[in-house]
């Protein structure tokens, strides 16, 4: 090992340590930006160190360097443009696309080693086993993430799409992956094995995500993120690169933990999510407890303003409708006005509010909402009975009392106990369904009033009406 190689190894080891510390900083919203910056900086250093190593070895020609530089510049430009231009409502789609890119890039590494090796028969299990796992996991991630992004964007229907034979594929393909891996290990000089694994994984990735409804997309995004990290770790084993193994393992482990937490928040197992079928377009007209048609109580901006202005305690429940209307700043302004009037205000954030983990936290942070005001479900639920007003802005399934009784698509899902507040105000454009595809029984509760408006325009009207009352 040359002095340059030794130095690069130490640099990559330091980068790996920075990845670990950066992930630790992401545990808290206060330090998450520093953690993200540290991890991104460490990755940039790792890329430069790898380039220095390639230069020292002389293993890349002039044309190769041109491809590397142009590829790096193009990828960096696309990433920077996407990160700066994407709307918060489209962030889940962007994350899914990033998962697809990460999984696809990881697949190219073992394919190069398996198909481009001058002596393929000499490849041992140290390369072929992680190589096969990388091809399968990375390709499933690539295909599944593209389908998930399409569902979130609306180009693919968000409802569960169960085509004939989908269940049979889900059962038969995993054993086929095992057989393909054994085939590759025993005959590494056969190019057909990795290509067959690639084709089967593409089919499985599509078939896995299509039957999953929109209500489960936050869990799916977390799971595919874990798959991306695992694929990258397998690529690290193929290349014998510790920094890549550490980075991939961190993403895989953290994504797996987050997936479990998200599934628990919906009181569903990860296996139940992957079976699919949740988030249908079903649901009929709202009914009251006696089985007859129920009615809603519409409110005007002045009606809501009176309740808010004379309340002692208000709990705000943000949802995807807030993000879709880009109304976080208007909500922040309204809350500041209420606080200046002596009203105690806090935010109740459900773990799966929005379309991806942490969606509401990031959204409210953009509006400079103090983090101590954001309360998680278990912390805030006991406070609803003491709240004079629960103000629901664009949230749907996570507030549906139907979750407390069996026989509905949301049965058993932990919800925010909004209906236990003294008064409930829901800002919503219409009586449309949430991802679960059923009516929200909260809307017909006698204590609930519906303020029908776009979240942004409705909050602007409320702010003006409250200001008129408080002076």
TrEMBL record:
Keywords: Cell inner membrane, Cell membrane, Membrane, NAD, NADP, Translocase, Transmembrane, Transmembrane helix. The keyword Transcription regulation does not apply. It is found in: Cell inner membrane. It is an enzyme of class 7 (translocase). InterPro entries: DHS-like_NAD/FAD-binding_dom (IPR029035), NADH_DH_b (IPR012136), PNTB-like (IPR034300). It comes from the Bacteria. The chain crosses the membrane at residues 6-25, 37-55, 61-82, 94-111, 131-149, 161-186, 192-212. Residues 10-462 form the NADP transhydrogenase beta-like domain. It is a multi-pass membrane protein. Its EC number is 7.1.1.1. It catalyses: NAD(+) + NADPH + H(+)(in) = NADH + NADP(+) + H(+)(out). Belongs to the PNT beta subunit family. The transhydrogenation between NADH and NADP is coupled to respiration and ATP hydrolysis and functions as a proton pump across the membrane. This is NAD(P) transhydrogenase subunit beta. It comes from Streptacidiphilus jeojiensis.
């Amino acid at each position: 090992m040359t002095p340059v190689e030794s130095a690069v190894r130490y640099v990559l080891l330091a980068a790996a340590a920075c990845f670990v510390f950066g992930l630790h900083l992401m545990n808290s919203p206060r330090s998450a930006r520093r953690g993200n910056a540290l991890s991104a900086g460490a990755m940039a250093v790792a890329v430069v160190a790898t380039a220095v190593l390639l230069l020292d070895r002389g293993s890349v020609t002039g044309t190769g360097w041109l491809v590397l530089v142009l590829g790096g510049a193009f990828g960096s430009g696309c990433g920077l443009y996407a990160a700066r231009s994407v709307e918060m409502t489209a962030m889940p789609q962007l994350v899914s696309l990033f998962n697809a890119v990460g999984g696809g890039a990881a697949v190219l590494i073992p394919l190069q080693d398996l198909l481009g090796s001058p002596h393929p028969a000499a490849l041992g299990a140290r390369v072929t086993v992680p190589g096969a796992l990388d091809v399968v996991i990375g390709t499933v991630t690539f295909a599944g993430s593209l389908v998930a992004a399409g569902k979130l964007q609306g180009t693919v229907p968000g409802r569960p799409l169960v085509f004939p034979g989908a269940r049979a594929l889900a059962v038969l393909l995993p054993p086929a992956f095992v057989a393909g891996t054994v085939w590759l290990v025993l005959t590494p000089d056969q190019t057909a094995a990795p290509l067959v694994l690639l084709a089967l994984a593409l089919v499985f990735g599509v078939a896995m995500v299509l039957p999953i409804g929109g209500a489960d997309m936050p869990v799916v995004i977390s799971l595919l993120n874990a798959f991306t990290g695992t694929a990258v770790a397998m690529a690290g084993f193929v290349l014998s690169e510790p920094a890549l193994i550490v980075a991939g393992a961190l993403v895989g482990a953290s994504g797996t933990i987050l997936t479990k937490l998200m599934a628990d928040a919906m009181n569903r197992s990860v296996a139940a999510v992957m079976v699919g079928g949740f988030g249908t377009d079903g649901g009929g007209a709202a009914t009251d407890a006696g089985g007859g048609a129920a009615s809603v109580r519409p409110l005007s901006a002045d009606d809501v303003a009176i309740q808010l202005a004379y309340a002692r305690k208000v709990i705000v429940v943000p949802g995807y409708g807030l993000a879709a209307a880009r109304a976080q700043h208007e909500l922040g302004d309204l809350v500041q006005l209420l606080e200046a009037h002596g009203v105690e205000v806090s935010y109740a954030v459900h773990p799966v509010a929005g379309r991806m983990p942490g969606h509401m936290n990031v959204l409210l942070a953009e509006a400079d909402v103090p983090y101590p005001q954001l309360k998680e479900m278990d912390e805030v639920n006991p406070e609803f009975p003491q709240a004079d007003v629960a103000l629901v802005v664009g949230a749907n399934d996570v507030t549906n009392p139907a979750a407390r009784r069996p026989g509905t698509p949301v049965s058993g899902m932990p919800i925010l106990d909004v209906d236990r507040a003294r008064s409930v105000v829901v800002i919503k454009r219409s009586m449309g369904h949430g991802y679960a595809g059923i009516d929200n029984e909260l809307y017909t509760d006698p204590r609930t009033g519906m303020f029908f408006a776009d979240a942004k325009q409705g909050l602007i009207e409320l702010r003006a009406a409250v200001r008129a009352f408080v002076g």
